[in-house]
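Entry, Tuesday afternoon. Goal for today is a structural model of the target with S-adenosylmethionine bound, before we commit to ordering more compound. Inputs were pasted exactly as handed over by J.K., no edits. I checked the ligand SMILES twice against the vendor sheet because last time a stereocentre got dropped in transcription.
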Amino acid sequence: MNIDNKRANGRYYTCGNPFQLDPFKTWAIDSDLEHQVVLEPFAGAKNIPQLINSTHLKCQDWEYFDVEPGAEGIVQRDTLANFPKGFDVCITNPPWLARNSATRRGLPYPDETDYDDLYKYALEKCIVHCPWVAAIIPEAFIRSGLFLKRLCDFISLVPQRENKTNQTSNKRETSSMFEDTEHPVGLALFAPDITSDVRVWRNNLLLGTLSELRQHLPMPSNNRSIVFNDPNGNLGLYAIDNTVSASIRFCPPAELGEYKVRQQCRSITKIGVPWSVDIDMLNSHIATIREKTHDVFLTAFKGLRRDGKYRRRLDWALARSIIEVDHPE
Ligand SMILES: C[S@@+](CC[C@H](N)C(=O)[O-])C[C@H]1O[C@@H](n2cnc3c(N)ncnc32)[C@H](O)[C@@H]1O
């Protein structure tokens, strides 16, 4: 199947196994998984039940649906238009498709929703109809602010390096959640009742609750006198990690040499700040924020750094608030 056909239905099948992680096991006990008939509304080739079986977790039975079934025993149905009712537990990896990507590629995208990605629409359907929902979704979800009321846990799923050596390339292989993409993914766990906070995990490591982590962010800034992509700016910024380590940093603009600022570029820029900036201080703010928030609020890129973590990007809004912290009175 070609990549555009896969994209049209948001079809990237789950391959890693996030269901062996402790927070999922706790959720499975709380949801009484063992006695439930579980709904898989976007079943694909039934990978999720196989993964759950392989962790030795049990449920009473499964019901499968998909608009384009990829295996026997799946009911053919457009579940976005006609969502199956009467299930207490739903475990899925819904279709993902960014609206702008659909538009660019001429792929269909439902008119009924304003969400910018199909997974948000699909996830909303699951949460509205099922008290307990576990969904594999983009890692960026945790920064969207959506559906937090019943979200109890969010796990950033970082592929674990396997000690398996690829004979031809002689490189160590990394087990990925998907066959076709190494898009950063998370597992979101929802409960029936309103939750007081969201526990955020990296695999089995509890990083903190969302509100605890947010406390380490600087106050948001609207200071428009800080101008990004200013060719004559007095501050440089490498906004994306390199492939080796956490390398996002501010720098003197001269270090960027003849680099031409491009308006659309989100990786390297010059910034006009109407005061004299202390670059070392700004970089120490970045380091502290990264350490205390475990990068939860920085967008992850596909592909891991050499230190086994996702490459991250500092967006302009957070960069602006970091610069503003050192605004002289
Ligand atoms: C990301 S794949 C995941 C498949 C499976 N859940 C897994 O984890 O391997 C998403 C699936 O959603 C299905 N899908 C897309 N739009 C759908 C719709 N409107 N109704 C039902 N299934 C749909 C696709 O056919 C695809 O099999």
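Residues 18 and 157 are 7 Å apart (CA to CA).
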